[in-house]
Each structure stands twice: as structure tokens, then as C-alpha cells.
Specification:
Number of helices: 2
Order of helices and strands: EEHHEEEEEE
Number of domains: 2
CATH topology of the largest domain: Trna Endonuclease, Chain: A, domain 1
CATH architecture of the largest domain: 3-Layer(aba) Sandwich
Largest sheet: 6 strands, mixed
Structural class: alpha+beta
Helix content: 10-25%
Distance between the termini: 59 Å
């Protein structure tokens, strides 16, 4: 099926006019470079709006992930939990938290507010998706609080 020209549109990042073709009706940017620059700008603005003194958008994703895990670790340590970090970058959970008299809880840390999120593992264990954004920690509904 040949592509047909739908309309001309202005790039949301640089303002340059570009053609929109069939199959790309939702295209907002004139190029991949503009799309990446706009994404970086949104992240930078989000981080600054959240009061972060560190522009997270300038960091590699692995560094942002490590900062998120440490932020969540501090949150749970302040709440009286013992926190255990996964030493490997690959695994079913980033953290295990435990408080005397309760069951250990597996946590996978994600950037952004991941509310209402819980993921079953193959062995039936639950891994809770905990969001972190701008230094704030977002716990899912049904998260064990004991």
C-alpha cells in the first residue's frame, strides 16, 4: 500500500514545517533529533518542577535508576524497615524490605508514579512496583504497611 500525504504540520520542538504521511498521523516532531530533544526538555522541566537540585535528564538511565533505588531505600529505612538491595542489575526485584514480625516484601523501583501496580512472579510471589519521581516515593494500593 503506497503512502499518501495527509497534511503538513509544525514540529512541536523547533517549529519547522514537515509533511505527515499515512501511518504517521500522530507524528509530532520533524525528526528523531527533535523528538529526543523535546523528551530531554520535558524531563528537565519535570525534575526542576519537582524541586530536584540535580537535573536528572542529564544523567544516564542507569544512574537515574540507581538514584531511584537509593531514594526508595531511604524511604523504607526511615519507616523502620531493613532494606536489602539486589547486587545484580538483573533479577526479579530491586529491593527486599523486611520488618520484624512481617513477611519480606519484594520491590521493583520504577521512574514515575506507578500506582496500583503489582506483578506476580512465576513462583507466585508478588513484586510491588514502587514509583519514584522528583524525590517522592509512590506506593501502590494494597502495599503491606506492617
Amino acid at each position: 500500500m503506497p503512502s499518501t500525504l495527509l497534511t503538513a504540520r509544525s514540529c512541536q520542538h523547533c517549529g519547522k514545517e514537515f509533511d505527515v504521511w499515512t501511518g504517521y498521523a500522530n507524528q509530532l516532531y520533524c525528526s528523531i533529533a527533535c523528538r529526543k530533544a523535546a523528551t530531554r526538555q520535558r524531563r528537565l522541566e519535570r525534575d526542576m518542577d519537582a524541586g530536584s537540585s540535580l537535573p536528572m535528564a542529564d544523567l544516564p538511565s542507569s544512574a537515574r535508576g540507581a538514584i531511584g533505588e537509593l531514594t526508595v531505600s531511604i524511604h523504607f529505612q526511615n519507616a523502620g524497615y531493613q532494606v536489602f538491595r539486589n547486587l545484580s542489575p538483573v533479577g526479579p526485584a530491586d529491593l527486599v524490605i523486611w520488618k520484624s514480625g512481617s513477611e519480606p516484601v519484594l520491590i521493583d523501583v520504577k521512574s514515575g508514579p506507578y500506582l496500583n501496580s503489582r506483578s506476580p512472579r512465576k513462583d507466585g510471589e508478588q513484586v510491588y512496583l514502587v514509583g519514584v519521581e522528583g524525590g517522592r516515593v509512590f506506593l501502590p494500593e494494597g502495599f503491606p504497611t506492617n
